[in-house]
Structure formats: C-alpha cells, structure tokens
C-alpha cells in the first residue's frame, strides 16, 4: 500500500514536468548558449597570471614603471604663459625591452590643429551665453598647446622624437632592458587657457574688477605614459573628456611666480622660511596645533591689499613630493589661505584651503572642515591618508583632482549670499575631489580606459563621507535637512537613469570616451551599485572588509576592474559574478513585483486535481495512502469552514505527520492556518534579492530577503509557498526603496491604488 502511494506521487510530479517540457520544445526548436545570469565571468575576465592573481591581488611578478621628475617652472603672469625645463628619469621595471618611450602632451588637446572639436556632434543650440556664442562662432582658434623647444639626453644630445597629437614618441639611443634607467630632458612652454571661457581642467580665471588672475595649473608638463602588463603603452589619445593614466614617481619642482603671489602645490614646501613672512610663519605654527578650527595664514584684508600690487619681483617656491602620480599647483595674489591639523592614525595631516575673496563667506567657514572630515572618513574606509597635506582650492566651475591638491566650485553671489544648492554643491565637490586622493591618486587605476574605477568608487565613498560630514557638523546643514542631502548614492536617485531610454545608456564597463550620460554612467550608477551591494546584498561587515582589502592591496599600484571584482569576492566568500555582470556589463534595470497571491487551505479529501488524476488512470481512493490536499480559496473544492481550521483540526493525517517528528521537533511544532502561493515576477533584466515585507492582520510585520539566486532557474517569475499562523493582509516588495526598482506599481499586494497625476491635479484645484 505504501509503495503504491509513493508510486502515484512521483507520477504526479513527472507528468506535469513532461508536459511543460513538450510545450517548451515546441516553442523553441534551436538550442541556446548559456545565458544564465549566474554563470561565472570566465568569458569576460582575462585569465589570471603571474602579474595579476586569481584572488584579485597583485601577482608574484607584478611590476610597475617609475618616472621621476626634476622641474623648473616659470609663470609669466603678464602674458599668462608657462614655461618649464624638466628632467625625467624613467625606470624600466618591466621584463620587456623598450625601444622608445611615450610622453603625454595633454596641452595639445587645445592646440589649433586639435581634432577634439571635430568629433563632437554639435547642432545649433537655441540659447547661448555671450562667451559660448563668441567661442562657437566668432573667435578664431587661439594659440594653445605645447611648444616643445628641445628633447635631449643628459649629455645635451638631441633625441629623435615624433609628436602624434597628444602623444610624443621619444626614440631611445639604446633599447632599455629590464631594470635600466634612462634620463632625458624636455624644454617647453605654452599659453595658459582661461578655464572659465575656454574650458579645461586647469588654467586661469580672470577677475576684471581688479585685473588679477587666479591660476589652477595641471597637465602642464610633458608626462610619462603608463607601460603595464595590461595595455603595454597606454597611449590612447587625450580627447578632453576621459582622464589620465600616469605612473608613480618622485618630484622635485621649483616654481617661480610674482613675488606677491600665494602658492601651494603637490609636495612638501622646502623653503617655507624664504617664501613666508614672519606673521605667516607664526600663524602656520599655530595651525599645526589647531584640530577643530582652521587658522588663517593669509587673511582677506591682506589678500585684498595684495590684489593691487602687481609686483615685478619674483619668488621661487621649492617642493619635493614622493610617490605621487601627478603634479598640480595653484597661485595668485588674490588667495586667502587657511589650515588646520587633522589626526589620521598616529600622524597629523594638514587640511588646507586657498580661495579668492569671491569664495567668502562660504569658503572660510566650511572648506577646510570638509577637507579634514573627508580625510577621516576615507581613511577609515580604506587606509590612513599617507600624504602630509590635502588642499582645496576654489576655482570657478572647476571640480578636479591632483595629488594633495584639488580645484572646487561653489561661489556666493557678489553680496556674499548663497543658496542651499551652492552650499551643498561646494561641500559635495570638496569631499569628492579630496576623496580622489585615494582613487585614483593612490589606488592608481587607468582613468583613460575606465572612468568608473575612480569616479564610481570615489562617488560611493563621497556619499559615505557626506553623511559623516553632516553628522559631525550639524551647523553645516540647513534647518530643513536632518542629514546631508547627497545627490548620488541612495538607490532611488538612479531610477530615472536606469529606467530611461536604452538608446542613450551604455554599460558601466565602457571606455570613458564612449559612454553616454557620463555622470550617470561613470559616477552615479557604479556608486549606487556599490551602495546597494553594501547595504542590501552583502551587508556592511562583509562589504567594508573586502573594499578595504582592495584599497590596501592596490595602494600605490595600478589595479584593473577584474582586480576589484575578484578581491570583493575573495575577501568575502560572496559569489558576486551575477552582480558584476548585471550592473557593470549590461544596461539592464531592476523591476521586481508581485504577480499573484493565492490563498490555500488544507484538506484530507482528494481535491479536483487528484480526482481527475485518478479517473484518468482508473485508480480508486482506497489505493491511495493518506495525502494532504491544498485547496485554493474560491475553487470548487473550497468550503467556507476551511478558513478557521488549523491543520490538526482539518486533517485526518495528524497522527501520521506527528509520528514522523522527534520529541524535540514536537516542541517547536507550529499550527499555521493560512497558506499562500505567492508569484513574484521580474520584468526587469537585473537579478536582485527579493526583499519582501509581510504585514499581518494584527498589525505586525516581518521582512524576508530571498537571495538573488532565487532567480537561477527562472528569470521571469518565481513562486514562494508561505504557511502562516496569522493572516497576511498585505505584501510589499522592496518596502524601503533600496534596490533601484524602476517601477513600483507592481510592488504591492493588494495593489495600492495610486492616484494618476491628473486626479491629483483635480484634487488640488478642487481642494
Ligand atoms: Zn571625480
């Protein structure tokens, strides 16, 4: 008898399986390749090797090149011209023989013969500012770009070289073997661009009221390209948008500017006593011991007095920087300067701000505090900030990063008033650009290739740092805000982008130059993906450990996307291939909903399904072992009195069930009255965990998260059987909007009646 019952039970399951299979075979006559969303990323990833390990760590043969610079730089303020003489010492740590070197000439992107304007598709804009109109239609091309006067070896012998737009190939007199060093010098000059009118990531702003310029100078010297195990020479041209790939090195830089200028730069200032007044020295000594409030080194009255000077004398500021990937400086007689100390680990770091009076009162109040707070948050999430200072320079419409120094926007109007938008924008950009010290200045990814590797990771940490800053400085917040109003990071903010027109969305894993909607693609979406990974998928403990591990493994090295992806799994035991594939390699979006909820009750009486089955096969009821039958509410087998019965009351099989429980199990026995068959649907292509909030008739609720792997066999819908002692009155998917679900109209059961915008509008005018 028992055996027969088992036999019939398995027939039930097999027949329904065969039926489904036949139907599928009729619909699909061809086989298919493996498109399972949980397939490992073997096709997308390159094979691990001696340089880069399968764990995501640098491999045993990992190497990186070194480029050391000695430079003498002179600013001609009257003519806005910069000239320099530099000696580069290049060390070939690769196992390869190099016949030539590639040097980046970024200023040529602004040259008369630049091809950058030619690749921009540009129709007639309906509205333009006067300067846009002048630039687009009236002005001829300006004299911009590098003038390379000489390229010589250390004996003064000219070296053969060839310039292809923003890249210069320098022929080596003798091929460099592994371990060789080669020194050569370049003499150059260029006319500095007005970054407000002409654009660019560096240049000057001109202040017509006092006739001064404020210079924020970068990409100003011929810089070595990166040679690596991944790209060979990274000599992809600079078109203006995708940023930079640079090797680490040590810098000795002497910068000569008008004597009445205030200047700060990457590196340690070596001749502070020569360039500081006695008063500035005293204030500086105080700033080194001030941990809560900035100390002013040059105040506004002093800066305003200096604005009128236009000295014909010069001063040379001498700097030395170790292990940096780039160099930047800012100089003007308009600069106000303040500093304070911040403890990072057991070291004091100086948080510094430089700004013209046009930045006040906002800048003297918040810039340096934002710098200090950023260093604290980023150090906690990665590694202790290793440099001795971080400078925030105010430059109109700029947001740009270099080692130890960055340019930031956020300017009050002429009367010193500013909106919340200006204030939070200024704080946000300072946090972001100071944060770039970590990614990509120290964790030195290839920006030319992968914008998201620095912008995405940095924007994610920016969000964490903004929230910290708001907590530490409630006075920085406007009365209507309880926390810092971050504009990137929270999941719901990326919904309009991810749910938008697919013709203008590219996967995150796209070269920076070729992405649509740059900000959303390379900043917003990866930052949100990481925030979701941290808060919803992995949890903070697992995520933070793995993220820190990545930062420490690749500190002062050159990571690739795979090194990041692999490390996050390696350090957490969390298989994330599905997450990387969906969020980084596709443009799929999240949309998970509730398709259907059916209520069931239990019975010992064969239901319609079983009756049909027995009839087909000529089986009588006494051939069956006792079975439990699930009866759907409202079906022909349903009877009203089923509603209030527990299984032990409704079933004749109680003893049979109980006999199979151990005494220990019997203690924990439940008595569910309500049974539900819930069908979740997934119109969106992304697989994500299903976060479900069940609310019961007594007003209590419970949230259950089904891991993303629930979708591994069916990418469209999955079912869950729920047994409950309490009646479920409502079900909500993603109740806290943490998955970036683009359509929440299918997230609730029973369906929430949402007013159409027209109805809301009618209510408004009627009410
Ligand atoms: Zn950035």
Using brief descriptors, characterize the structure shown.
single chain; 767 residues; alpha+beta; 7-stranded mixed sheet; 6-stranded mixed sheet; 28% helix; binds zinc ion
The residue-averaged pLDDT reads 92
What ligand molecules are bound, each kind once?
Answer: zinc ion
Shape field: elongated
Assembly category: single chain
Tally of DSSP helical segments: 20
Roughly how many Å is the radius of gyration? Answer: 33 Å
Strand order of the largest sheet: 4-7-2-1-13-17-15
Percent helix? 25-40%
Q: Give the number of DSSP strands.
A: 31
Low-confidence stretches: 1-19
Computed structural class = alpha+beta
Largest sheet: 7 strands, mixed
Share of β-strand residues? 25-35%
Report on this model:
This protein has 767 residues and is of the alpha+beta class. The chain contains 20 helices and 31 strands. The protein has a 7-stranded mixed beta sheet with strand order 4-7-2-1-13-17-15. A hairpin with a 4-residue loop joins β27 and β28 (701-706). α12 crosses α13 and α13 (540-553) packs across α14. The chain is elongated and about 110 Å long. The site of zinc ion has 4 residues, from α10.
Topology:
Blueprint: H1 2-27, E1 66-76, E2 81-91, E3 98-104, H2 130-138, E4 147-153, E5 161-164, E6 167-176, E7 181-191, H3 195-198, E8 203-207, E9 212-217, E10 223-224, E11 227-228, E12 232-233, E13 249-258, E14 262-265, E15 268-269, H4 272-275, H5 278-287, E16 295-298, H6 300-306, E17 314-324, E18 329-332, E19 336-344, E20 347-355, H7 362-381, E21 389-394, E22 399-402, E23 405-408, H8 420-435, H9 437-442, H10 451-472, H11 495-498, H12 518-538, H13 540-553, H14 561-570, H15 577-585, E24 593-603, H16 608-617, E25 629-632, H17 647-650, H18 654-659, H19 663-667, E26 674-681, E27 690-696, E28 701-706, E29 717-724, E30 728-733, E31 748-749, H20 757-766
Parallel strand pairs: 1-13, 20-21, 21-23
Antiparallel strand pairs: 1-2, 2-7, 3-6, 3-10, 4-7, 5-6, 8-9, 9-18, 11-12, 13-17, 14-18, 15-17, 16-19, 19-20, 22-23, 24-25, 24-26, 26-29, 27-28, 27-30, 30-31
The structure holds zinc ion (ZN).
Zinc ion binds at residues 432, 436, 455, 458.
């Amino acid at each position: 008898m028992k055996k027969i019952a088992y036999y019939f039970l398995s027939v039930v399951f097999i027949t329904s399986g065969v039926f489904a299979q036949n139907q599928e075979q009729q619909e699909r006559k061809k086989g298919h390749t493996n498109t399972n969303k949980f397939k490992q990323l073997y096709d997308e990833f390159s094979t691990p090797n001696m340089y880069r390990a399968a764990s995501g760590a640098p491999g045993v043969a990992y190497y990186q090149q070194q480029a050391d610079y000695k430079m003498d730089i002179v600013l001609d303020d009257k003519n806005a011209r910069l000239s320099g003489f530099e000696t580069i010492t290049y060390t070939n740590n690769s196992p390869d023989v190099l016949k030539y070197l590639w040097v980046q000439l970024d200023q040529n992107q602004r040259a008369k013969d630049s091809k950058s304007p030619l690749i921009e598709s540009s129709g007639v804009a309906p509205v333009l500012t006067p300067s846009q109109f002048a630039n687009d239609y009236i002005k001829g091309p300006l004299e911009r770009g590098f003038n390379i006067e000489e390229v010589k070896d250390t004996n003064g012998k000219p070296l053969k070289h060839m310039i292809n737009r923003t890249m210069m190939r320098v022929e080596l007199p003798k091929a460099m073997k592994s371990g060789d060093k080669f020194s050569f010098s370049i003499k150059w000059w260029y006319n500095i661009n007005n970054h407000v009118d002409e654009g660019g990531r560096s240049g000057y702003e001109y202040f017509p009221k006092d006739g001064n310029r404020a210079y924020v100078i970068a990409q100003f010297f011929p810089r070595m390209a990166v040679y690596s195990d991944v790209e060979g020479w990274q000599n992809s041209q600079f078109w203006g948008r995708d940023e930079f790939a640079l090797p680490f090195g040590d810098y000795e830089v002497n910068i000569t500017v008008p004597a009445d200028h205030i200047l700060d730069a990457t590196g340690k200032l070596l001749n502070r006593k020569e360039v500081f007044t006695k008063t500035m020295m005293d204030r500086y000594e105080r700033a080194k011991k001030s941990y809560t409030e900035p100390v002013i080194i040059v105040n506004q009255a002093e800066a305003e007095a200096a604005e009128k000077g236009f000295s014909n004398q010069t001063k040379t500021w001498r700097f030395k920087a170790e292990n940096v990937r780039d160099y930047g400086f800012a100089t003007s007689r308009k600069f106000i300067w303040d500093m304070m100390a911040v403890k990072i680990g057991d070291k004091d770091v100086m948080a510094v701000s430089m700004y013209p009076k046009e930045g006040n009162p906002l800048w003297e109040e918040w810039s340096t505090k934002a710098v200090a707070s950023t260093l604290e948050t980023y150090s906690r999430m990665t590694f202790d900030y290793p440099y001795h200072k971080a400078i925030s320079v105010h430059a109109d419409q700029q947001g740009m990063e270099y080692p130890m120094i960055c340019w930031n926007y956020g300017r009050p109007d002429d009367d010193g008033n500013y909106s919340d938008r200006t204030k939070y924008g200024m704080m946000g950009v300072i946090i972001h650009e100071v944060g770039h010290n970590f990614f990509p200045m120290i964790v030195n990814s290839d920006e030319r290739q992968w914008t998201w590797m620095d912008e995405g990771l940095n924007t994610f940490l920016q969000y964490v740092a903004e929230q910290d800053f708001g907590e530490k400085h409630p006075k920085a917040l406007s009365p209507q805000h309880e926390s810092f109003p971050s504009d990137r990071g929270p999941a719901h903010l990326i919904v309009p982008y991810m749910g938008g027109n697919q013709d203008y969305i590219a996967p995150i894993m796209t070269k920076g130059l070729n992405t649509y909607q740059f900000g959303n693609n390379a900043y917003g979406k990866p930052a949100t993906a990481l925030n979701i990974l941290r808060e919803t998928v992995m949890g903070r403990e697992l995520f933070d450990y793995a993220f820190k591990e990545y930062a420490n493994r690749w500190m002062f090295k050159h990571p690739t996307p795979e090194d990041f992806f692999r490390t996050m799994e390696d350090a957490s035991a969390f298989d994330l291939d599905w997450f990387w594939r969906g969020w980084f390699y596709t443009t799929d979006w999240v949309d998970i909903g509730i398709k259907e909820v059916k209520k069931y009750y239990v019975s010992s009486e064969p239901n319609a399904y079983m009756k049909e089955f027995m009839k087909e096969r000529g089986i009588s009821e006494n051939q069956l072992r006792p079975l439990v039958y699930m009866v759907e509410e409202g079906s022909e087998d349903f009877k009203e009195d089923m509603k209030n019965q527990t299984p032990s009351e409704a079933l004749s099989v109680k003893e049979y069930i109980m006999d199979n429980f151990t005494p220990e199990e019997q203690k924990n026995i439940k008595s569910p009255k309500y049974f539900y068959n819930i069908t979740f649907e997934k119109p969106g292509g992304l697989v994500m965990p299903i976060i479900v909030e069940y609310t019961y008739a007594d007003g209590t609720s419970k949230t259950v998260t089904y891991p993303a792997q629930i979708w591994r066999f069916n990418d469209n819908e999955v079912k869950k059987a729920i047994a409950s002692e309490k009646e479920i009155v409502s079900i909500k998917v993603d109740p806290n909007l943490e998955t970036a679900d683009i359509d929440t109209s299918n997230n609730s059961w029973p369906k929430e009646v949402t007013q159409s915008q027209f109805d809301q509008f009618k209510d408004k005018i009627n009410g």
